[in-house]
Design brief:
Strand order of the largest sheet: 2-1-3-6-4-5
Number of domains: 2
Number of strands: 6
CATH topology of the largest domain: Ribosomal Protein L4, Chain: A
Strand content: 15-25%
Number of helices: 7
Distance between the termini: 13 Å
CATH architecture of the largest domain: 3-Layer(aba) Sandwich
């Protein structure tokens, strides 16, 4: 089992913790990690973009000039795609970009992302991540002491003070153990996690 240090809010080491290799020590499957990221981004797309074809653009009902004898190329409408103000040839229409991943693939991708952070030394465990009041300055100081200024902060339970404090830091995001995802783990340099949250993740994913 991999062993990592446990810190307090001041950035001082207060102990060690052994991580379950079934969750935090798996072989990284880059293909599944990539697929999970693409899946999340695709599922988040609204797909509401829309443009008009020549049949939907207003005007152009009348033939601009007679078919022959003018010297011009024949034209049937001023709203054909080659005209300024005409419709698009292959106009984009609302569509659903989402696709499904198997549950086992999602779990494997998440384990791979977490294992990669542990291997890189970018997985910081805190004995207790709590604040007496919503104070951004306190949380920022703690993250700086942990050398994790661009971090995904994972909580076991929703701590309103921590969440509110993190909202004012653009390089920090908070998440609960049941909302963590591969994209966020990869996006932020360091994962800062509550010791209790580690136990919960091991219980769910081991």
């Amino acid at each position: 089992m991999a062993k990592v240090s446990v810190y307090n809010m001041d950035g001082n080491q207060v102990g060690d913790i052994e991580l379950n290799d079934a969750v935090f020590g798996v072989e990284v499957n880059e293909n599944l990690v990539h697929q999970a990221v693409v899946n999340q981004l695709a599922n988040n797309r609204q797909g509401t973009q829309s443009a008009k074809t020549r049949s939907e653009v207003s005007g152009g009902g009348r033939k601009p000039w007679r078919q022959k004898g003018t010297g011009h190329a024949r034209q049937g409408s001023t709203r054909a795609p080659q005209w300024v103000g005409g419709g698009m040839v292959f106009a984009v229409k609302p569509r659903d970009y989402s696709f499904k991943m198997n549950k086992k693939e999602k779990r494997a991708a998440l384990k791979s992302a977490l294992s990669a952070k542990v291997a890189e030394g970018k997985f910081k465990v805190i004995d207790s991540l709590t604040l007496d009041e919503a104070k951004t300055k306190k949380l920022a100081a703690s993250l700086k002491a942990l050398e994790a200024e661009k971090a995904l902060v994972v909580l076991n339970e929703n701590d309103v003070n921590v969440v509110r404090s993190a909202k004012n830091i653009p390089t920090v995001k908070t998440a609960l153990t049941n909302t963590i995802n591969v994209f966020d783990i990869l996006k932020y340099d360091t994962v800062v996690i509550d010791k209790a949250a580690v136990a919960t993740i091991e219980e769910v994913y081991a």
